[in-house]
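#data-curation
PF: Archiving a pair of folding outputs for the training set. Convention for this channel: one message per protein, sequence first, structure tokens after, nothing in between. First:
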Amino acid sequence: MWKTSIATLLLGTSLLANAQQPPAQQVVQWQLQVVRDGQQIDSFEGTTTVGQARTDTHHKIVQHNVGCKDQPGGSIDLARTLTVSPLQADASHVTLSIDAQETLEEDSAQQTDTGCKLPPQPRQVSASHPGLQVAAGQWASWTIVDKNPNLVYRVRAGLSTGAN
């Protein structure tokens, strides 16, 4: 009886230890498309563990001809920084927190009173979505800017099925 009691005690201790281990962290694979006025202009993708965050910055340096002689002017860095953090995930839905900082150009070129070209003015846009719900395998849209330009993020996410 003594041996049985010790074996039962050890088995119970082992089960208790296994029950107290945290579950495996879920990993989310996501894609984000940046759509300006109906056309995709950029994309981001990543594989991120629930509760973690991933930040990426893309740069596009543009230069415009300016002045009355239409000469190349100073350049502008149109930077886009996104931080994506999966908050919850299961087989049917993923909830993502997304923070975005964008430097956009105005669509219309300005001119001086005498008709000389001025460069488009950069515009800073910051947006945050605390919990975008995405159905697994489906695209969800989030409008960042309504017009001039229309800027939409399209997001698809699901549980990662492969090794990272």
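PF: Second:
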Amino acid sequence: MGLLEGKTALVTGGSAGIGLASAVRLAAEGAHVFITGRRKAELDAAVEAIGSAATAVAGDIADLDDLDRLYETIRDRGRGLDVLFANASVASLGTLEQVTEEHFDRLFGINARGTLFTVQKALPLLNDGASVILNGSTNVDVGDEGLGVYAATKAATRSFARTWANELKGRGIRVNTVTPGPTDTPALAALTPDPAAFHQHLSARVPMGRLGRPEEVAAAVVFLASDQSSFTTGSSLYVDGGLNQL
């Protein structure tokens, strides 16, 4: 018996990186996992990798109609939702001088607005005692150049988790944030034209001397999703190799 046997989970941004690794682990622990993302080909590949325990629904969390369609699909299965990992987010670089209206609106539209409505629209489906996990970032705690808007969206996410944990406690629903440090994902590589040098620079800053692996973050997601974290809510679980701790 897995930690999540018979449960139903949703992972947004579940076709690559941390989202895909988390979907794989949740399914391995016995959950039926719905995954969503904007690229259908990647979603199809993810379902093939996970197997019959996965269902893909293409869509954009910034599009409320897409969210409605996603939750209608989950509702049709008739078992509600026990785990929601609101993972989908985007990052791009831009200093204060460089930030444009489009840059700001895209990051806040997906990372903050999209996350809010992902959770709000899930409320009628969330079973009592469910676990909601938001994807945070260690950038909330530092002032890395070029990541001001991205960090601000993740600060909003961290604040949401605290407030929602308080608002949903009456239903026994726990809300926590998983907070990865630099993690070796396609999204990290896409931030720069020289991924190898960027990875080396980030690894040198991490006390453990390397980037995290998506599977390591996924292990923390499973912990927060399961009854092993039954007395944990409103928290932020850092998976950062000691970056923001030492």
